Each structure stands twice: as structure tokens, then as C-alpha cells.
Amino acid sequence: xxxxxxxxxxxxxxxxxxxxxxxxxxxxxxxxxxxxxxxxxxxxxxxxxxxxxxxxxxxxxxxxxxxxxxxxxxxxxxxxxxxxxxxxxxxxxxxxxxxxxxxxxxxxxxxxxxxxxxxxxxxxxxxxxxxxxxxxxxxxxxxxxxxxxxxxxxxxxxxxxxxxxxxxxxxxxxxxxxxxxxxxxxxxxxxxxxxxxxxxxxxxxxxxxxxxxxxxxxxxxxxxxxxxxxxxxxxxxxxxxxxxxxxxxxxxxxxxxxxxxxxxxxxxxxxxxxxxxxxxxxxxxxxxxxxxxxxxxxxxxxxxxxxxxxxxxxxxxxxxxxxxxxxxxxxxxxxxxxxxxx
Amino acid sequence: xxxxxxxxxxxxxxxxxxxxxxxxxxxxxxxxxxxxxxxxxxxxxxxxxxxxxxxxxxxxxxxxxxxxxxxxxxxxxxxxxxxxxxxxxxxxxxxxxxxxxxxxxxxxxxxxxxxxxxxxxxxxxxxxxxxxxxxxxxxxxxxxxxxxxxxxxxxxxxxxxxxxxxxxxxxxxxxxxxxxxxxxxxxxxxxxxxxxxxxxxxxxxxxxxxxxxxxxxxxxxxxxxxxxxxxxxxxxxxxxxxxxxxxxxxxxxxxxxxxxxxxxxxxxxxxxxxxxxxxxxxxxxxxxxxxxxxxxxxxxxxxxxxxxxxxxxxxxxxxxxxxxxxxxxxxxxxxxxxxxxx
Amino acid sequence: xxxxxxxxxxxxxxxxxxxxxxxxxxxxxxxxxxxxxxxxxxxxxxxxxxxxxxxxxxxxxxxxxxxxxxxxxxxxxxxxxxxxxxxxxxxxxxxxxxxxxxxxxxxxxxxxxxxxxxxxxxxxxxxxxxxxxxxxxxxxxxxxxxxxxxxxxxxxxxxxxxxxxxxxxxxxxxxxxxxxxxxxxxxxxxxxxxxxxxxxxxxxxxxxxxxxxxxxxxxxxxxxxxxxxxxxxxxxxxxxxxxxxxxxxxxxxxxxxxxxxxxxxxxxxxxxxxxxxxxxxxxxxxxxxxxxxxxxxxxxxxxxxxxxxxxxxxxxxxxxxxxxxxxxxxxxxxxxxxxxxx
Lengths: 342, 342, 342
Prior knowledge:
The structure is a homotrimer of 342-residue chains. The first copy, chain A, has 342 residues and is an alpha+beta fold. In chain A, 19% of the residues lie in helices and 32% in strands. In chain A, strands 1, 2, 3, 4, 5, 6, 7, 8, 9, 10 and 11 form an eleven-stranded antiparallel beta sheet that branches. Chain A binds chain C through residues 1, 3-5, 20, 22-26, 28-31, 33-34, 77, 100, 103, 105, 133, 213-216, 218-220, 222-223, 225, 227, 229, 232-236, 242, and chain C through 28-34, 36-40, 42-44, 47-51, 60, 100, 187-191, 193, 197-198, 202, 204-211, 213-216, 259-262, 284.
């Protein structure tokens, strides 16, 4: 029995600790095809090598969320196997595109620890980095989770709560090497809307809905080598339902957002994110976006939009009730930066 | 709200109009693997690079229906988002094989418009061309759909109904460059039946059945970036069922036809097609074929069979009732040409 | 009707008969990605080109069970289409790794025939070889199945029952060309347990469970071009359920065994195997392993473990009842050799 990984508990973490996550993963066109089968993903830079070359990439970079899911999945056995809740994300930066053929590894540093007043759980903050086979960081983000203690009587550590940016500032957005949207083909991309056409405060209803299936979210979650039991084993929860991996909802909502944000080609930063309510098979997921901010970027004809992406079982534009809490139909509230042609 | 695509209505089309469809798509071995997971596809030319080389291809061409689905999927947002019915296909020609690594784009020309007597809808005829990254046309076909009018009171256009061939004539079948079936290995292909073994009028029951699943048809339909709402959103229809994309039924029937038509290696033309009745998860789909015609081709040891491929929930050989209408169990009636070793 | 394959019956086999199976298959990164989506497979040698290179492979070999399934699938139309039961496996040897880009073919030799006393069925023993595009044998195994007779009154052949090894002896294990685990990175592989840490008789509960889905096992089974009707057609069985391909359970259990056997990197031999009870959608599959034996290998820092891998709907460690028969919750009892770093 002692051969298996029971996961870390709260008292197993130390601030400053480095965790090398298993298992490195080579990604091919196969993962891209699976991604396109699982989500209605259509952003042209990710869909076509030719389109990608016309705007400065050597070939089509994989959908940025593939990199996120692959890196995130590796952290699960070390960070969230005994997690009670996935509390938040911050300072997510997609520093380099990932291409078919790349091999990704992941490492995390514990940057904060805070025992909860109950004494039964604590919050663990980690900064996770995903690297490619050349040792280049492709993705970096902070995540914090609530983790069970093994021993409720274990003494509490000194509390360390990291100072995290509320969002990635425009000046801190990743540099886009070689990207040039001067020859961007709006017909092929699917919509005519440029950076200047979007206004801060604008809300876009992405119209379409997708009904969730157990077979699909399990395929997705396994594809990222995410092994959290609740996604796969219907006996693991009292209600006999399998909880859908929050990342599946992120990718579904992002793909649905094509309808209205077809030109929001790449995600370059994640500012924050909340999985507001659980999602299950049978739920029909819709998405809407709000333009939160706009930024200039140092690449020809490229601008950035800061977007709130909401996945919901309800209607566009509604987010919180009178009590300030997320409405029960809200599944995801994600704040990110995407690049858009000017 | 105005950022999203509401689709074209009948009065938005003009005869002669050219529509460049978004989004170009690079296809890899990943899409081939997904196709093999979704359908029991086993035709040797598409399954094996070695087999394909032995008959004159540089590598295994992708299943021809992959090209069809990819091109068709691109037309959906521009042609059939507001379609009431997919009425027919004609003059489909698979002009060049598509290989892993190719990038496909699609363009349509409106070639006919006819308002219906109700005044609420009209029929739109388009000729669609799929091209690879070298600008070579790989696929061309005519499709006509019934589309809603935005404004019932909008004046009717002059009716233009194109003259369409009832089927592609043998002399008009695509030229098979480099294909030579002289070294065709019947053992590896799976059956011994040659072109000369098939007789006009012969009916082949393909025996096997497959029970449909929502997760599977949604994976397939998304893979082709087909976004029609009724396939994904169980709240979109009063009966709470998701309509299966007709192309999913085509591919399933074609793959089932291996048993009896293992040597009908490539589809080179689609003469006509009708989605006779809707298909839903839980239906068990079977297939049968009828040999409609035979033709000589100008390639060594290669002949063509014109085949009726029927997908049904019932028995082989039955197609229409006494009233001349398709029986309720008939799902698909497809008329195509395939190449067969002599 | 005569064009379709009705499969061979018992009296169609002769000892010494060679059967060339259709259809050759080129495997790409797409099949690997599908495998990772279908199973929680995480063994580092199969997951990462970089990791594989660090231990002597040119790139990541495909999961060994991919080769097994592809070869097995090809034999179905010739060997088990009229099978009543899949009785056993022996002398399975994974002689060479299979890589993305390889094309596999399969051939079987009938090595034994034994009519059952009922006169209605007989046991067929075949030795099957899978070869790559260079004609190198990548996999060889013996399988025996109970096959129906077409004509109950057909005379019985002389009984030939092959002498089969109860297991592959250490001295007969495949040679591992170029493999060197001296630079094996245990952090990246996911566990610290070496060959010397495992003791004969040790039982490992792999903890996690996965609930089966019809859509998933059908995708898997088709991916291997396995066409046995009972897996796909819910009308084929009186209970309206689709029987899950036994190989799907093998791959699921093997993938689950990562938790405790993360370093059992490659399967190099299958000693025996029994599909103890049928598996259906809705079943939650768990796995446990028992260390049956250990062997030295002639490659630097590489040892072998002989493992019993059990898939169960019940608890770890339980296998047979007081009557010596498999407990009803046991799905699979597989005996294999895997390589492990020393």
C-alpha cells in the first residue's frame, strides 16, 4: 500500500519548497485534433499553419489552454490531490507559444501558506512554471488551493500570504516575438471586428450552448493527465455524479467565445479566475464576455483586450446576486488578456 | 450583441456572390486517428502509408470524407446557420487527395436562389470549393438548403435554378494521377472482390450495426468545426434531443460498408444525397449498398463503381414505401462513385 | 450477400494454416493522443520523447498495449468473429518498440485445434505476429478462442494442443537494445521505487477508479479496428448492453497501475491473461497488482518485475472464491513482465 501516492497534506508544504512535477509530456498534432474534437475551437492562428505563418509564427501554435491544461494536470498529484477547493489564479503569463512536437515539464514553488481558523485545512499558494524541451518557460501562474491537514493537531506554520497582482499590467504582458498582424486576413479569421471596435464595458453574448457529457469531460481531463478522482469515479461522491474538471469549462467557454471574439487570437495572460459553481454532465454551458480593459502592445498592428469570460447555465450579463455572491448558474468567471488585430 | 454572427438569411444572398469561408484548417495524423476512433474505417489505402505507396500515392491520403467534412463545416456559419433543411448535394468531385499536413480553405459561389411559395423561406444553391495550401482544388460540390427569410415581406428575387447533373458522368470523373492498382494486395485489403465481381443491381448488406452516442457525434461534428446549434445544445429543440449531423451518418455508413466493399478504396464523386430522416443518440445504424453502375477509368487496373449507400435503422434493401417516400427508418440515401481494383 | 465476411468457423481452420490479416495500419501521434485521452496513461518513457531519449530510445515508444491492440484488432475478423469465448493468452513477447510513423501488419499461424465434447464448438490456438514496415516482428503471442462450428455434424479433426509455457522465462525475455536506465530521473517518472524496493508477494492497491462509458469503449475499440459486433450494437445481445472489449479493461487497469508502479515503464511480455467477467458501461473499474517474480536483465540498471494485474469492481487483493473460481467482481487477471529501473 505504501507504494502509492496519497498526495501531500497541508503540513507537508514549506514556503520556498520546490516541487518537480512528474510526468514530462510530448504534445503532437494528436492533442490538437483531440482539442478540436472536444471544444468548438476555431481561432485561426491555432487552426491553420498557413494563417499562423502569415502573422509571424513558424507554424500554428497550439491553443494556449492546451499548455495550461498540460502544466496544470502535472501539478494535481503534488498540489491538489487532497484539495478541498481550487481557490484562485493570478499572474498567469503565456510567455512563449507551444508547438506540436514540444515536450513540457512543470515545476512549482510554494510561495504562501495560511492555516484556516478551523485548524482542519490550510491554503497553499504555489507559483507553477511550465518549460519546453529547451528549458524555456512557456507558462507561469500562481494558484492557491485549500488543502486538508493530515493531522488536525499539527501545529500551524507562520502565515505567509504572497502579494499578488490583481491583474497583469499592460507593461508586464509577455513580449510577442515576431508577431505582426499587418497582413491579418479578417475574412479567413471569421470576423471583421478590430481592437478599435471593442469598447470597455461592452458585453458580448456568445449565443451558443453545449450540453456536457461524462465521456467528453473524462476524455479531456485524462488527456491532460489530470488524475483527480472526482472527475472519473462516480462512487467517489455521495451524489454519484462526476464533477467536471474546471479547465474543461474554461476551454468550452473560450471556444464558444469565438462567436463575437474570433479575432481574440491568443491568450497571453490570466489575471484571475474562479470556478463559481460545479458543473456536471447534462448541464448546458453558454458563455458571455465583458471587455474590461484595452492595452497597446509593442508588436505591429497588435493590441490587447482584457476580457471577463463567464461560463453560465443562465443568461448573458448576469453574474452576482444582490448579496454580491455568484449566481448559482455561474460556472466560471475568468479574467484574461488576449491579442487582437488593430 | 452585434459582434456575433447571426448567419445569413435568404435575402442576404445574391446569385454570383462569392463567400470566403473562415477558418483555414491544418489537418494532421491527429484528425486521422480521431476519424478511426469515431468510425470503423478500414479501407487500406487510407489506413496504411505502405499500402498507399504500393498503389501510387506518396502516403496514405486521408479518408475522403474528412476533406468533405472539413470543407462542409466551414460553410455552416455562412450557408446553413439559418437553414430549415439540407435539401441535396450534386456534382461532388474529389479532385485531389488530401494528406496529413495539408491546410484546407473553402469558398462558395451562390449559383441559384428560389423563394418558396410560403414567402417565409427560400432555397439557396451554392457551389463550394475546398482548396489546399497550394491553391489546388481538392473538392468541389453543389449543395442546396432551405433558408429562412429575415423579413417575410422582403421582395422575392428573380428565381434562378441551376442546371445540375443527375450524376457525375464517367467521362467527368476526376483524373487519378499516378494511381496504379497493378500491385494491389487483396489479402491486405481484406476482401478478394474485384471490379468485375460486382454486378449492376447487386445489393450488399453490410451486416454490422452501431448504436449512436451523443458524446461521439458531438466529438465528430466539432472536429469539423461545424457549429450548428442543434447538434450540441439539448435545449435548442422542443424534444430535448440533439440532432446528429448528417455527415456523421454518412461516415458511419461508409465505414460499415467495408464489409462487402473493402476494395471500394476512395470516394471520387458524390452524385446526390438525401438525409431522409433525422438520427439521434440511441439509434442503431446499419448500412446497405446497391451497385448502380460501373465505369472504366484511365488508370492501370482501376475501375469505378457507382454505389447507392443507404444508412438505415431497419433492414437491407428497403428504401421507399408505396407512396414513393423514404421509409421512416431510412437515414441516408447517398449516391457516389468509388474506385475499385480490376 | 455473399460479398461480406461471415468469419471462419471451427471447421475452416487447419493446423499449420497461415492467415494474413487485413488491414495494415500506420500509427501516428494521433493514436498516442487518443490513447492518453482514453486511459490515464502516464508512464514517462511513453509520455515524453525527452525522457525516452535519456534512457536509450530514439523517441518515445508508443504504449506497448497500442501495439497489442492494433495487432489483436486485425485478427478479429479472421479468428474471433464467431468466437464464443476468448480463452487465454500465452507467450506474449514485445520484441521491439513501436514508434509514431510505423505501419503494422499481422499474421497468424494456427497451432492447435481441439473440438469440444459438445460437438458444437472447438478451441482454436493461433500464434500471432505483428510486424512493422521493415518486416521486423514487434509482437508475438499465442491466443486461444472457442469458435462455433458451422455444421455441428462436421467430423472432428485430430486434436492438436500446443505445449505452451506457463510464463515467459527470464532468459527468454526480449533483448532490450540500447536501453540504459543509468540516467533514469525518478522525479520526472513520478515515483522513487526501484526494482529492489519491490518484494515478491507484495500487493499494491492502485487506489483510483474509473466509471466506464459506452462512448469511450467504442472509441477505443474502433481505434484498433476491432469490429466485433457485441461492442457496438446494443441490439446484438438480449440484455441490450454493449460488452466492453477486454483490451479496453487491460489498458484501463494498466494505466491505473501507474499509482504504485510508475516505474514499471514498458511491458515486455504477457505470460497469461483471463477476462474473468464481462464489463459494461456504468461499472467502476479499479486495479491492484501483485509482484509474482523478479528477474535480472542484460541492460544497464534495468530489472524486470513479473506482475499480476487485476481489474476489479471490488477490493484489492481478492481474486477467487472458496470454489477456486474468480469472484464475480473480477474483470481481468493479467500476468506480465515489465521493466523497472534498478
